[in-house]
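User: Hey, my collaborator sent me this sequence without any context and asked if I could get a structure. I don't really work with proteins. Can you help?
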Amino acid sequence: MGILSLTRSHGFVVFLGAAVLFVAAQIQIPLQPVPITLQTMGVMILGLLFEKKAAMQAVLLYITLGIVGLPVFAGFSTLFTVGARAGYLVGFVLAVWAMTSARERLSLLGLNLLGTVIIYACGIAWLSVFLGCEQAILVGLMPFLFSGAIKVFLLAGAVRYIRGM
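Assistant: No problem. I've predicted the 3D structure and written it out in structure-token form, which is a compact way to encode the shape of the chain:
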């Protein structure tokens, strides 16, 4: 069960999750074609702390807002300007689903690794359609390995601390 469980404030929890993703998307190092953002950290927070239904709805709300043209993605972009980065968004949905499904079987570190691998796999798969596989790995994974590893360990420690309070 997630720390943020379904209650009468379910709508607020979903909105809060989408807001976390929006804010995390705007904190970035602008690389091309894929900027380094805190979005994956936001996804991991949802996967670790939210119940499955709320986490899935939060990610889907966030993506829907971008689809309808609101500038919620990295650099205040919309789905129409995301293009080659859209695979990472699909990865967000799959990562949250997998993380919340495996919560009882994996450690915090394992859950973060699972979510991270899913996001990068989806992102690179879609990016390779535009750039080819080798170039997609070069620009869609390699710049993120160090920062991704830091996020995985920081979040696992932070959630372990929060749960111990």
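In plain terms: The mean pLDDT is 88. You can pass these tokens on to your collaborator as they are.
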